[in-house]
Structures are given as C-alpha cells and as structure tokens.
Specification:
Elements: H1 2-27, H2 34-46, H3 48-70, H4 83-159, H5 166-169, H6 201-225, E1 232-235, E2 240-243, E3 252-256, E4 261-270, E5 273-279, E6 286-290, E7 294-297, H7 302-315, H8 321-334, H9 340-359, H10 369-377, E8 382-385, E9 390-393, H11 395-404, H12 410-416
Length: 419
C-alpha cells in the first residue's frame, strides 16, 4: 500500500513539474512559488478590490504582448534581432501547441494508467477474498465430514453392544420391520455386524413422498372401479333435480348432490337449453337434468373435474350457506378418490370452503339450530375469535397440511393464500 502511494505521488510531482515547464514556455514567465500563491490568496480575501485591479493589469499586459508579437518588425540597425532570437519567436507558437498537446496526452495517459492499476488492485483483492472464503468453507466441510464419520462410528459401536438389556444399552433391534409396500422377503442373518446407513433428510422426504403416492394410487384405483359405465357427467351444483321430462316444471324424480357422477344416456335440446338423460350411480333411477348444472368428466381425470367444481363454487360469492355445506361434504370424501396432487389440493379447498361457510353465519343468528349443528360437526377445525365476533378455521390446519406435503409445489401456495 505504501509503494502504491509513493508511485501516485511521483506521478503527481512529474505532471506538476511538466505543467510548470509548459507554463513557462507559453507565458515567458516563471510560475510563482506555492508560498506566493498562498499569500496572494490571503491578500485576495483581504482586499478584493486590489485583486480585481491586478487581474485587469495582467490582461492588459497579455494583450500588449500579443499586439507586439502580431506587429511586423522593421529591421534597423538598432532593432535588428539576432538570428537565434528571430528563430525563437517563430518557434514559440509551435512549441506552445506541442506543449499543450503533450500535456493533454500525459493527463489522459496518466488517468488511464491510474484507473487500470486501480482495477488490477481491486481484482487482486477480490481474488484474495475468494481464496479466503474457499479456505473457510473447506474447513467447515471438513468439520461436517468428521462429524458424520463420528456418528457412523458411534452407531457401529452401538450395534456391537450385547442386546441383553436394550433399554439400558439403548441398542437398536437387529430385526428390521419393513414398511408398507416394502419387500418382505426374509434375508439371511448376517454373520458379521451390519451397519444400517443413516438416512439423510432428502432420503426421508423421498420415502414419505413415495408412500403417499402409493396410497393415493391405491385409493384412486378402487374409486375408479366403482364408477358407472359409458359417458360420465358430474353435478356441478348442489341439489340438482332429476326430472321425468326435459323441462323445468316436469315432475321431480329425485335429488343429486354436488359432485355426484352419473352415466349420460341421451342429450336433447329444448329451445336453447341442453338437457341430459342420465342414470344414477346405483342404477336405480333414470331421469333428465339441466345441462347447465353438469360437467363432463373422464374416469382418469376425476381430480381435475373435482377441483373445477369446487373452484367454481368458491368464486361465486352468491353461493348460499347450504350449498357451501354440501360442497364441504363433497370435498371431505373426494380427496380419497384421486391421485396425490389432486387430493392435497382438494383438502386445501375444503378448508377454504369451510371458512366461507362460517362467513355466511350471521352474528345475530349463531344460535340457529342449523348453524349450531354445522359448528358442532366442524369443531375440530375451527375456533371462535372474540375480536372477529365469529368462527375461523384454525391456522394450524393450513400449517399441518403444508408440513405433511411440503415436498409438493402446492405446499407454499397453501400457506401463502391461507385466510
């Protein structure tokens, strides 16, 4: 650092001396000393009028000097200049231009060198800092490896302890109990000690995800086997009336709840209205339903259809309390009929539908029997807030859903959009 400062000081002194030389070439005067400039500055502060006069006098002298240089000279015996003086006056303008050009080149070059060396110094410092961080990280990683090695060594020592009293010794049972879906074929007892590998968090997470997917697939396959045959439609509204003829005033044969899947038998138009003749899942009833209250559904894409039905209901702020209760009943069973991603989203939609149903309860009618019954059925998921004057879904329900399925992309959305 001291060497860099000395180099900068040398460049500064060199440029300053060069400027003094160029000043002498241009003005034919020796530049004043630093002490004289300081005294002049002090005198300027003390007597501003005198300073203005001295400036003015300098301008007059410069103009007279230029006038003498521009006037043609008449050679006489008394005014005849020596050849060297004439050559010097002829070269002076040229030397002035060269000096100014040289000064500018030196200033530009000096600035370029200064910034170039400054950039090189910064790069060197950054490289040194990076090397230091790498050394520190290497030390930390070495410490982690040593810690992991010590844990494995400790586990080896524990596995060699006699299992006569496992509670006192803290030994792990030698016989491994297989999880659901794991190969249960017995393995021969090893003659030497067998060290069980430590599971990392990533391996645990993958195992949990695999088990959850297998269970969801099993349930979805069982639900698919119970579906009706042929083209299928799902009821997208609550309390859809099954009528004897394709018109609104026809006699009613039954009632279909939201989410019910039926077989499509026939389609007809009544003016601009579409009606479907359907057969109920138990094959006991046939009738006509208004097409606006249904949606097509494919057996392998039931999860998407369930989610669409729920979202349409939740987006409609005019949905009544009774319709929201029916939606909650549907979602509480629908998540056990589909694949894992759809099942988790349906569980989340159930919590949202439950909150909307609670919002529909008037504060002055909370003692109404139908509201009391619904609150009693949902008491495990809700809590009463005095500050709000009503019931709310417990926040820990959203947190628990997130923690249980944190390996899915929807987990972050569950917390972000929780009410």
């Amino acid at each position: 650092m001291r060497w860099e400062s000395a180099r900068c000081l040398d460049r500064y002194l060199f440029i300053r001396r060069l400027g003094a030389v160029l000043y002498q070439l241009i003005s034919d005067q020796v530049p004043p000393e630093a002490t004289e400039r300081v005294v002049a500055l002090i005198m300027h502060n003390q007597s501003e009028a005198f300073a203005r006069q001295t400036l003015l006098q300098s301008i007059i002298n410069i103009k007279l000097k230029l006038k003498e240089l521009s006037m043609p000279s008449v050679e006489t015996d008394e005014t005849k200049s020596p050849p060297l003086a004439a050559q010097s006056s002829w070269l002076r303008p040229f030397a002035t231009g060269v000096g100014v050009t040289l000064l500018l080149a030196i200033l530009v070059g000096g600035s370029f060198l200064f910034y170039q060396e400054r950039e090189a110094r910064l790069q060197a410092e950054a490289a040194a800092e990076k090397a230091r961080h790498e050394r520190e990280n290497a030390a930390v990683l070495a410490g982690i490896d040593n810690s992991a090695a010590s844990m494995v060594q400790k586990r080896e020592v524990t596995s060699t302890i006699s299992p006569q009293d496992p509670q006192e010794q803290g030994a792990i049972p030698a016989k491994h109990q297989p999880d659901e879906g794991e190969n249960t074929k017995p393995e021969p007892e090893p003659k030497v000690k067998n060290v069980e590998p430590l599971l990392t968090p990533t391996a645990d997470q993958a195992q949990l995800e695999q088990q959850a997917r297998q269970q969801a697939q099993t349930r979805a396959a069982a639900a698919k086997a119970q579906l009706p045959f042929g083209s299928l439609r799902i009821m997208s509204a609550a309390g859809v009336r099954l009528r004897q003829q394709p018109r609104h005033r026809a006699p009613k044969k039954g009632m279909l709840q939201i989410g019910t899947i039926v077989s499509e038998l026939e389609m007809t138009l009544q003016g601009e209205e579409v009606w479907y003749q359907v057969q109920t899942p138990d094959n006991e009833e046939q009738g006509w339903v208004y097409g606006r209250y249904t949606l097509p559904v494919e057996p392998d894409k039931r999860g998407q259809a369930y989610i669409q039905v729920a979202q349409n209901k939740l987006k409609n702020r005019q949905t009544s309390f009774g319709d929201l209760v029916d939606l909650c009943h549907f979602l509480s069973r629908a998540h056990s009929e589909v694949e894992l991603e759809s099942a988790v989203e349906l569980k989340w939609l159930y919590l949202l539908a439950l909150q909307q149903s609670l919002d529909k309860i008037p504060k002055h009618q909370q003692d109404d029997p139908r509201y009391v019954k619904w609150i009693s059925q949902s008491e495990g998921d809700i809590v009463y807030k005095e500050s709000k004057g009503g019931w709310l879904v417990k926040k820990e329900r959203f947190q628990q859903l997130h923690d249980q399925y944190r390996f899915l992309p929807i987990a972050q959305r569950i917390l972000r959009e929780a009410p």
